[in-house]
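If you are new to this repository, start here. Below is one unmodified record pulled from the training split, so you can see the exact layout before writing a loader.
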Amino acid sequence: MGSDHKPDSVAARILVVDDDAELCKLVSRFLGAEGYSVYTVHTGGLGVERVMTENYDLVVLDVMLPELDGFEVLRRIRIKSATPILMLTARGDDLDRILGLEMGADDYLPKPFNTRELSARIRAILRRAASENTAVAPSESTSLRLGDLELNAGARTVRYGNKMLNLTTVEFDLLQRLLQSAGSVVGREELTKDVLGRKFSPFDRSIDTHVWSLRRKVGNASDGSERIKGIRGVGYLYALPDRSGKDDSK
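And here is the target side for that same chain:
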């Protein structure tokens, strides 16, 4: 079921998948006034069907849905589509957030939320998607290598050893930012601004959740030490490899 806002040729097309009809109406009105073309469906099955048969610039997806829950919808979409997805989760449910990010969500927003915060998250995701789509052609000059890990900014690929890593857009940008400052601490405020494209809030744990998911994918160095280290109360750093090619844990 579509919203009352009529799409035009330049407005970003957003699909909202949520079984709360009143919330869908509120979000449709607000985002429509922001210039987006907004469409809503109330079941996971319809959400998957719409994404597979129509073109959207972003999907706002609730975790708790009838028929198919949000995680199953996300899994099915990611099989065939890289459309950016913003997950709506229950406030304080870290497990849902982590699982969503590991399965390929681009970001999450806890319920209840402020519509202006929703709009800010959407703008940031669309900016990242636009930046990814206009990435420069692969070349040696766009590669970052540390130890056994190589990131190619042009191709947007990450490899360590003979293994290619499957990272989300946010995870790739986060890893790239940390590698650019390898050996130095990058603060949470700076990471939030550079990677997520928004102002840092002391109560926003988004960066910590993305780092947690990224750590699981890149694993530890060959000597067992952490590649990405957390500096309590400050931020994160990517450990420089020592002369033997191992990550320096000191």
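Two things worth knowing about this chain: The two ends are 56 Å apart (CA to CA). The mean pLDDT is 85.
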